[in-house]
Amino acid sequence: MAMNGRIGRVVAPIVMCLLLATFIGGSRAANPTDPDWPCIQPKVPQISAGQVWNGPSIEEIGESWRDDATISELAAKLAARRTTIEEAKTLIAEFAAASEGDRAQRLTAVFAGTLSLINSERASIIAGIGRYARRQKALSKKIEEEMAELSRMPQDDSPDSVSMRADLQEVQAWDIRIFQERERSLRYVCEQPVVLEQRVFAIAREILSHLK
């Protein structure tokens, strides 16, 4: 019985710290267009060509890159993160060498396709981060409600009271564990849109090197 009391006194401060951390994290990462955005990194929904590309305009290309099997296949390989940047450089160089007559046009189409595919993957990741953040907020609220319920429970040492407190403390401890594990994963999750931005920049730079 004394042990249950000590658990309650330990769990409550932990919960308060978690809730405070959530509040501070949300304030630090607040985005004018999405206050639920949980990442330190600014939320940039889409990578624009102007951010990474200073070659020929891709506006007129649109989605026409999909009509050329060679270009669409290369764009898919370049966009895929399993393709290393070194491998991407080799693929781009080989494509450029085989596109002597209309090299600039075809390389620009490859960039347009790569950017489109990476933006699509990035949008999916950003949507996933939003769902992740909403789950964390919901879990934080649940933990807070559990804490409030614990405070309302009878504090006597009767078997029923002790059992009810122990059951809720067990549920709360599990929720706290899940919350903490998700928080530890958040940094990695938040880095993924930036990783894709860095990837498309590196690929754009390599393609541009073959336009000179």
What does this structure look like?
- With 212 residues, the protein is an all-alpha fold.
- The chain has one domain.
- It is 74% helix and 0% strand.
- The protein is built from 6 helices and no strands.
- Helix 5 runs antiparallel to helix 6.
- The longest helix has 51 residues.
- The radius of gyration is 26 Å and the shape is rod-shaped.
- The termini are far apart.
- The N terminus is likely disordered.
Give the arrangement of secondary structure elements.
Layout: H1 2-28, H2 49-52, H3 69-79, H4 85-97, H5 103-152, H6 159-209
Helix pairs in contact: 1-5, 1-6, 3-5, 4-6, 5-6
Keywords, separated by commas or semicolons:
212 residues, mainly alpha
Label the overall shape.
Answer: rod-shaped
- Give the mean pLDDT: 85
Give the fraction of residues assigned to helices.
over 70%
Q: How would you sum up the major sheet? A: none
Structural class: mainly alpha
